[in-house]
User: What shape does this take?
Amino acid sequence: MRVKSWISFFTVGTVLTLLVFCSNKKFTAGDSLLVRVTGILSEKHYAPVRVNDEFSKKLYDNVLEKLDDDKHFFTQEDIKKLEKYQYSLDDQIKAGRYDFFDSAWSILMDRLAVLETHFNATLYKPFNYEQNGTYTVRETTEKYQPNLKALKDDWTLWLKYQTVDRLYRKQETARNAKDSAQSTGKPFDTLETKARQETRKFCTDWFKRWRKMDKRDKISFYLNAISALYDPHTNYYPPEDKANFDISMTGKLEGIGATLSERDGYIKVERIVPGSASYRQGELKAGDLIIKVAQGGAEPVDVVDMKLDDAIQLIRGKKGTEVRLTVKKPDGIVKIIPIIREVVVIEESYARSAIIDFGGKKIGIIQLPSFYADFSEKSRGRHSSKDVYMELLKLQDEGAKGVVLDLRNNGGGSLADAIDMGGLFIKDGPIVQVREPHGGVDAAGDPDPNIVYTGPLVILTNVYSASASEILAAAMQDYKRALIVGSKSTFGKGTVQTFIPIGGGSSADFPKGFGQLKVTIQKFYRINGGTTQLYGVTPDVIIPDIYDGIPQGEQEIKHHLAYDKIKAASYTPFTASYSGRFASAVQAAKSRVSASAHFTNVQKRAKSLAAMRDSYTWSLNLIKYTVQQKTLKDEEKLYSDSAYKPINRTIEALASDLEEVKGDANREAQRKEWLKMYAKDAWLDQAILMMQDLL
Assistant: This one.
């Protein structure tokens, strides 16, 4: 077994990618997208599955689950009609046919039409809110309704449950307003009508989203149902989705710099990105509705009732080009706003740091939302490892003696950056072991003996810390370089993916090309020989989480790859003057957590939430429903009354960061705003107290 440098490992990764791109699989012009996708998967997936009758049955179940997980649309009679396809989908794939999916989709569309008439008629007049009845909300609905009549009856109960809940909340708002002398004086009938209208709108919008799916969307849906059978992280990406993935990886795009949403058929501006093209142009504001989009002086395209993704594709474009937006302002005025597109940098997607002052000690915190990387610009592109390197230097310049690295909710990203980042904290040695489909194993690491930061390190994780986050946390734990603090385990994703373009030009349904497959090609292992697959990284100090009772992580996703072990790599644990205090710091933290009234209540709350999520029966009598809500509120109050009271510490933006944006009030506020997330952060405080013990 050999240790590769970051550069050579990245080279190996690039060569591998090229080999995957230059697949030996040859397709003819007449091969369908189905044939192309399954051909690539069978050739390049880490653990390919055979496309046979067993595969067909799994695909059949997976499609129906994805179309109607809550059993709201199909009946047992419908399923009887579809059962003939259970063991023939492998043959349909090989022939490039979508017979089963088309049949299921046709039934779904027919059902939407019937149920739309039903919910409109049901919601036309008030319910009897004094009548007894119940509706049970379940995490998993096991059975389909036997027939259409039973389905409609179930919908009637569900519609009443939705309306009772909305009406209760409106009454609560009115009562609270009255208590604070702000009552609007709205009578019950007005609130009740509004509640039914909102339920109707919810259903109408839901059905509209289904109907907006065009042929391209349906094919993508089916291809993802197929790829999910290989493992949860193998996915099909049409060109537009791949572009969105690239944005998430690089933290930048070419466009106007506005966050958009779809509201009542309109494209609504939710936020303007500070420093962006829209921000500098100045006329586009949050709350504006975009009704038309034109490319420079070309004829504008109406985007009302257009799918959000399609509208976004019209608004985005190359740097330096002009887009003209016809916008309806909140006061009703319509105006045309010309904007020259620029590169939009999404600052909150990058690493950022701050200084914590606790008892006269300065501790740095680095928040890393993902392991982003921009390979398109090579040496000039933003890389998370380079940015964390810079943040470490800035923190040390401002006097930080310890560093907390926050990887909570970090779903991973660039494997190369995780490896390179590990090298910032150790002298040299392997960071991760990577196993190929044929069984060969390479240990990838950093040979550079220079350490950027030698002080104590605490890493914060939670169940949504995945992939590259787990690689880094596991390596630092194995080297005894850092203490890990977090929920009972990280996510448990121990696989490596690469993108493989689907060749063959384009088609009428896919004018921009057939897109790419994200395929699992390797499995990674800790340097101690275990894999993070399924079980993740267990922290040194476990912090109770209110969602502990709810199944989460890789183990809960179907078709995951198995856990296994390989031989440990050769590595030397890190030692420093504070290393001998690790055990006592961990024990002290465990004692604090165990004795904490707040964390005791968190555990109680976790049990009650888990029970509710599994199954909860609600009364459809408004008075009884109100009593149920009061009981739940009382339980919540017990938890809220012990709301965490933070330790006496301050957290401030770095002086160098504020100096960089001096004179721009919005960007200065942005540099400070994110720190509010740490105001009452019990997990961070445990990390700070541990850091105090280490220092």
Remarks:
- The chain has a mean pLDDT of 89.
- Residues 133 and 620 are 5 Å apart (CA to CA).
- The radius of gyration is 28 Å.
- The chain has three domains: 50-229, 252-345, 349-496+525-595+647-694.
